[in-house]
Structure formats: C-alpha cells, structure tokens
Design goal:
heterodimer, A: alpha+beta, Uridine Diphospho-n-acetylenolpyruvylglucosamine Reductase, domain 3, Alpha-Beta Plaits, 3 domains, eight-stranded antiparallel sheet, five-stranded antiparallel sheet, 25% strand, B: alpha+beta, seven-stranded antiparallel sheet, 18 helices
C-alpha cells in the first residue's frame, strides 16, 4: 500500500466516520484495549529512506521489518539503544514507535521516545505532516515526534520515523547474584549511583542477572568490583533476548501480566502473585489475579502506574486512569489530530 | 529587530496591578517604569519591550492566583526564568504581565538513592550539580550559560550543552514537570517512574517555550559523576578536514562525551580572552572529550587520538589533569562573551545540520560574509551538528543591523535546505519566528496552533512566540519573493 493509498483510505473512512484499525505485523495485537475497526495494513509502506552511520540516525518507513532494520544497523556495528522487543517475527518499525515499548537497555540508554528525532504522520484527516527531523538537536515547534512514541496510533498513522542510533558496545558481560528481592533492589539502586557500565538488570526468583556493556576495560574493571558469577556469553545473549521477548517461563501461563512502572527505589510490593524486576527496579512485572484496583492503587502509592500488559480479560481497562486535567488534555489532543475519531479508537482509553 | 513600541495603556495597567495587589504583597508587583525596565529583554537584547506589569510570586498558590486573575481579565502572561534565553522567548508583553519565577530558588528534595532532585524552576542549572556533588552525582545538561540559566528556562527551551551527544538534552534528563495551565489548574507531566500512562505529555511540555503551562517544579535525573575525564585538543589546517574527522570518530564506534569545533577567527577571539593555550595557526580546532573509568578513558583517548591523526590532525594535545581539561574547555564555554569583546555587538545563530553537510554550510557562511560585508566566527557543537555562527556587527549602525538580519535569515534557511533545523537549542522565541514558515508547512503550523489551543484556548500564555500565525507566513513569503532572496522553490505559499 503506497502512502497515497493509506491517505485515501483515511480520507474515505473519515468521511464515513468509520474506525480504522492500524496494523503492521500484528505482533503487538495483544497490547492495549482490543483493536477495532476496518483493517489498515501498513506493511507495504516499507523500506529504509536514509541511513548515514556517521550521523547516528536512520530514517525508515513504517512497514519496515524491525528485524531487517536491525540487520542493516548490525552491518555498521550500530543498534537501537532502547533494545526494542519484537514480540513476533512480523514486528515493524511503525508498531515499535506506536507501542513505545523498550527493552532491557532502557534504564541506561533511554526509551523509544528518547531516540525519536522525527516522524511523518498521516493525521485523521489524511494530512501528511512532518515533525522533528533527522538531527539530534532540534527545538523548532512542539516535540510532536516524541509525543507519537507510545500513542498507539491514536494521533496519526506513523508513516516514517527517524531514530537515533548508538554504536554497539565493544564488550558485554553478564553476572549472576543470589539475592532476595529486597536486597536486589537495594543493590541495584546503590550501583545505579555509581559510575558502572550497567546496561541491563533482571531479578526473578532469588536470582539477579546484571549486564555490563562498554569499553572492554570498563566492563572488566566493573565485573571485578561487583563480583557475582559470570555467565557464558551465549547463555547470556539468549537470556537477555528471552527477557526482551518475554519468552522465559515467567511469562508463560495465563495469569494476567501486569507491567508496573515505578520509581526504582520503591520497596518490594506486597501483592499476591509472582514478580520479576527489570530496569534497576523501575520496572516490575507481576503475574497476578488480584483485582485491578488493588494493583493500580499499590502502583500509584509507590509513585508509578500499572498497565494490564497481557490478559484475556481487559474489562478493567489496560492503562491507568488519568487525572481529570490530563484526561481532558488527552481528549482534546486526540480531537486536534483526529477530529472524526477514526484512528485506533479506544485502543488506549475507551473514551477516545 | 526592535519595532516601534505601543505606549502602555495606563488604565489597563492600573486595573491589572490592582487586581494582583489584592492578593500579592507590594514587593511582588512592579509597574513603575524604573522597576519594570530591567525586564524589557532577555539574553537577546536586540528585542526590547517594557512590560505593563511584572509579577514576582513567592508561592505556587500565588502563581495560581496570578494565572486565574490574568485569565479572567484576558491579560497576556509571559513566564520568565533567569532571562538568559537567546531567542527572545521571555520578551515581555507590552499589554500584559511578565511572570518572573526568579524567587522560586529552593532545592526541595534530593534523593541520592533514587538519583533525583526536585527543584523549583528558578534554581540555576549549575547549582543543581553543586548541591548534589557530595553524593557523587550531577545533572548532565550543561548549556554554556549554566552558571546563570535556570532549570525552568532549560525546560522551556529543551536546553542542550556541550555534553549532550552522550548524555542527551533536557528532555532526556527530566522525569517530571509540575506546572499550572493559564486557567490556574495544576498539572503534572511525567512522574518519578521512567514513564507514565497515556501520551508522553512531558515530551510535549519540554521545549514548549512557555506556551503551554507555567513550570513551578522540576524533577531532574542525576547521574553518577564519571571517575575520570580527559580531552584532546586537535588542530586541523582545513575546516572540512576537521568536519570529516568528526564523522570518522563516530564511524569508529565512539560517542565522545563532548565534541566541539571552533574555527580560526573564533579561536583567536577566545584565546585573547581566556588564554587557554589554543593553537592560533589552526584553521579549525576540535575538542574531543572522553569520560568514564580511568582505564576506559585511557583506551578511548588513545583510540580517538589515532582516528584524529589519521583524519589529518596537525597537532593533538591531551589534557594531563583536570585543571588543564577545564582550561581547554574554558575557551569554548566563554566563546560568546569573548566574541562580545572584539565587536560592539554579535548575533548568535543556532541552526543544526546533518554533519556531512558541514563543509557546504561553512562555505556558504563564508560567501555570506563577503555578500554582507560582515565577519562571522563559528563555534560548533560538532558531534551533534549544532552550529553557532556569530555575526559581528554594530547595532548603532542601522544598515549593519539590517544586513545582520538578512545574513542570519539566509544561514537558517540554508540549514533547513540541507535537511537541518533553524534552532538546535536556543528556541524560536520571537527571533526565528519567520524562519518557522520556511521549516514547516501550513499543516504542521496549524497543528501547533491546535496543540496550543488545547492548553490555552484564549492564547494568553506567551502569545506571539514560537509558532507564527499563518497570515504572518503569507506576508513573510510575499516579502521574501519580492526581495528575490529565496533560492529554493520549496517555500510554502499560503
């Protein structure tokens, strides 16, 4: 589907007030409230538009496969610093930006939003709009391209995105520590305040895995200081992919999966169910059948929010409710971008 | 620059001042000319306007009442931090209230475990790093004005600095902004967690130039201070070679902590001022910094030195200790005041370009120097493509002022033409508002206005800044075409 086709579809649907369900590879169909509307498949609008390794920037169309793109970057020894989860072989760049999800490296290297430099969108009128650009420093106009990261396609069809890249670290090493959750949290926060090259952390069931990345000298020196048990390179690589892609046993089964985003130093949450930590303690995964409001209240109490990440039943809503003022700003922003309310309606919040 | 100023409406002034005095103590409301005059401009002194009233609140509750009052009376409000901005973002309204946050100077909370600080908007950028230094932490963004500029202004402009290639801009280092809408409603953007539910409103608020809300509290992320840092000062006999060397460093898989360039005229001006020991024969000087653990810095400095030499550096000097490192940087950080000493006035530009177009843009600037008969030294955040050409002129000569304006406009439009932007970190303000018409089409500008209306339906908060009215762009387009200056046909006509 060419850009003109997508544009035509949007205009036509806006005229009828018909909802469009924007979809790339469908790898994140599970995320957000249930998709509805007529399918708008973005996969044919694909390809790298510009890649200049010395600028540390890549620009590609929404339908580009994330795996293809990462392969191209790998040839130049570069990567998306936010380590995007794919959640399936069909994952596209458009879905990556729209979902705004980042992987294990996020706590140290920033999120999708942090890497966003520019985007082209088709808004709800079918207007092609370009925000940001291909340069790292750019303060002309409101930062709409970062606003798009995690907007779940509700503000526009993201047809092209420019993202910042980083060189791949020359050296990585993973260490393991036997620690209960409270101790792991304490260590992670203490280490976070020291200049250590930590690039990933995951705690589960009394075992903390810590990844170090950077110059060989820095990684070796840090490993020496921290102690722990070194994990073989291949096992470590497989382990972090498993965390990123949620293919480890913790993520199997059918208990609802909650994603709690909290200040890293928040204490251990006393909630029923199994927990896993990432991002130095700032991300807590919870498998629990506890009531949504109990979990949301605990997250809010700790200074963060809870998302119902994967579940068969989403009647309670996926995302934490907004304050009245933020809810109004969201509704009005949505209306500015999509006056007919046809782009992924309800995917983020039922009221828009 | 500088336009005829309408006289202040005395009736209106009295009405607004009295409405504010109803709940603010005398020391918090200024309207006598001798008191308001100091607020007539920010760091961009070419634009001046005396505000009708200045409000200096001391509490959040007072900020809220001021906004409620102004909203009810339909009075424009312009927020101001330290007033160091370089784009006229805090240029006062002649018919409204200049809202100074200068009294909001408290550090409210430091949490060394969570590595955050909660500060009021009037706290100076450098003061944050000073106050958290005992914990081995610091706040990374370091704009050159960091000893004077305040965090509230940094949020408004999304300020960068010389280390943002590695550590990011304000938007990457702020977790939460608390503010008030023009209606006086409190609102929190972001949180102390790494993300929030819903749209990323924090990203929208940062860099919004005070058009969407008034910031009253900022939660910043703190980083552990690197154990070691060293900088290489590399000389090149050709500016383009220096540009290629920058690309070579990045291509080698290195992201330096800082990567800055100065051309020969800038180096000469700076050396007279700070005696940093710069190589005055070099056509371009690169400052290339590495930080991290001691071993990491040794490795990286050695690698960078090799890359720079291979790229044709004629001389490389590595700082031997921290005093020397700071001395190497002192010149770069003092570039603007140094240039201020060799010319009655200077005009600083802020375009960003893809680095690979550097040679082309520098040659273009050289041609413009001849065309307009004005000198233009260059300092350049080379790592991220952010140019600060400084046009030297004398504001007392109206013709020079006019030529400077035209020179700057051409350079900014060149930045857009090569795929860059008109402003990398100083903001649009009033200064670059016409160039917004070159960078964006009617659709994007209309969307910006729509976003503004979501937050401020009456258009009272910092009106006339950052986003041009479409009618202004139409007028700008006509003038431009008539003057025959615009070389590219991409100009949106509306």
């Amino acid at each position: 589907m060419t850009l003109e086709n997508i544009q035509e579809r949007i205009r036509e649907a806006a005229g009828r007030g018909a909802a469009l369900r924007i979809r790339g590879g469908g790898s994140k169909d599970f995320y957000g409230n249930a998709p509805r509307g007529e399918m708008l498949d973005t996969r044919a609008h694909a390809g790298v538009v510009d890649y200049e390794p010395t600028e540390l920037v890549v620009t590609a169309r929404c339908g580009t496969l994330l795996s293809d793109l990462e392969g191209i970057l790998l040839e130049k020894n570069q990567q998306f610093a936010f380590e995007p989860p794919h959640f399936g072989p069909g994952a596209t760049l458009g879905g990556c930006v729209a979902s705004g999800l980042s992987g294990p490296r996020r706590a140290s290297a920033g999120s999708v939003r942090d890497a966003m430099l520019g985007a082209k969108i088709l808004d709800g009128r079918g207007q092609l709009l370009a925000f940001g650009g291909q340069v790292m420093k750019n303060v002309a106009g409101y930062d709409v391209s970062r606003l798009l990261a995690g907007s779940l396609g509700t503000l526009g069809v993201i047809v092209e995105a420019s993202l910042r890249l980083l060189p791949r670290p020359p050296e990585e090493c993973t260490l393991k520590f036997e620690l209960p959750q409270a101790k792991a949290l304490e260590r992670l926060n203490r280490w976070g305040g020291r200049p250590l090259p930590i690039s990933g952390s995951a705690w589960r069931d009394g075992e903390l895995s810590l990844r170090l990345s950077g110059a060989a000298s820095a990684v070796h020196a840090a490993a020496q200081t921290l102690g722990g048990q070194a994990v073989a390179q291949e096992d470590a690589a497989r382990f972090w992919v498993g965390i990123r892609e949620q293919s480890t046993p913790f993520f199997a089964g059918d208990a609802p999966l909650w994603r709690l985003s909290l200040p890293s130093q928040a204490p251990v949450l006393e909630l029923p169910g199994e927990q896993m930590l990432e991002w130095g303690g700032a991300l807590r995964w919870l498998r629990s059948r506890a009531e949504a409001r109990t979990i949301r209240a605990a997250a809010a109490q700790a200074g963060g929010h809870a998302t119902l990440f994967r579940a068969a039943q989403k009647a309670e809503g996926v995302f934490a409710p907004l304050s009245p003022i933020l809810a109004r700003l969201h509704r009005d922003l949505k209306r500015s971008f999509d006056p007919a309310g046809i782009l992924n309606p309800g995917r983020m919040y039922p009221e828009f | 620059m500088g336009s005829a100023l309408p006289a202040i409406d005395i009736q209106r002034q009295k009405q607004v001042a009295e409405a504010l005095r109803a709940f603010l103590p005398e020391r918090c409301v200024l309207w006598a000319r001798e008191d308001t005059q100091p607020y007539e401009c920010d760091g961009l002194t070419a634009y001046r306007r005396v505000p009708m009233v200045v409000a200096l609140p001391e509490t959040e509750a007072q900020v809220q009442r001021i906004l409620q009052t102004c909203h009810a009376l339909g009075v424009p409000v312009v927020p101001r931090g330290a007033g160091t901005g370089l784009s006229g973002g805090a240029l006062p309204p002649g018919d409204g209230v200049l809202l100074s946050l200068a009294k909001f100077m408290r550090v409210l909370r430091i949490d060394p475990v969570a590595r955050i600080a909660v500060v009021q908007p009037g706290v100076r950028n450098a003061a944050i790093s000073d106050v958290v230094a005992p914990f081995g932490l610091y706040y990374a963004p370091d704009p050159s004005s960091q000893i004077a500029c305040s965090i509230g202004g940094n949020v408004a402009e999304n300020s960068g600095g010389v280390h943002c290639l590695k550590y990011g801009l304000t938007v990457h280092n702020v977790l939460r902004v608390r503010g008030y809408t023009i209606e006086g409603e409190p609102v929190d953007f972001g949180s102390e967690a790494l993300d929030s539910a819903g749209y990323d409103m924090l990203a929208l608020a940062i860099g919004s130039e005070g058009l969407l809300a008034v910031t009253t509290e900022v939660t910043v992320k703190l980083l552990p201070r690197p154990v070691a840092a060293r900088v290489i000062m590399a000389s090149f006999d050709d500016v383009e070679k220096a540009g290629d060397a920058v690309a070579a460093v990045i291509a080698a898989g290195i992201v330096p902590a800082g990567l800055e360039m100065m051309d020969k005229p800038a180096t000469a001006a700076v050396e007279q001022f700070v005696h940093a020991g710069y190589d005055l024969d070099a056509a371009a000087l690169l400052l290339c910094e590495s930080d991290g653990s001691a071993a990491e810095v040794e490795d990286e400095i050695a690698r960078m030195e090799q890359v720079l030499k291979d790229a044709g550096a004629t001389r490389c000097t590595v700082s031997r200790n921290d005093a020397e490192r700071l001395r190497f940087w002192s010149g770069r950080k003092a570039a603007f005041p140094a240039v201020g000493r060799i010319s009655p006035d200077y005009y600083c530009m802020d375009g960003t370009i893809p680095k690979k177009r550097l040679g082309e843009v520098l040659n273009f600037i050289g041609a413009m120097e001849k065309k307009y008969g004005l000198r233009c030294p260059n300092v350049f955040h080379a790592g991220d493509g952010n140019l600060h050409p400084l046009i030297l002129f004398d504001a007392n000569d109206p013709d020079q002022l006019k030529r400077t304006e035209a020179f700057a406009a051409e350079v900014l439009e060149k930045c857009v033409e090569v795929g860059g932007t008109i402003t990398g970190e100083h903001g649009v303000g009033v200064e670059k508002i016409d160039q917004m018409c070159v960078q964006f089409g009617a659709g994007e500008l209309e969307m910006f206005h729509a976003i503004k209306r979501v937050f401020d339906a009456k258009g009272l908060l910092n009106p006339g800044k950052a986003v041009p009215a479409l009618s202004r762009c139409a007028e700008f387009g006509r003038k431009h075409v008539k003057a025959g200056q615009l070389g590219h046909a991409g100009l949106p006509q509306f």
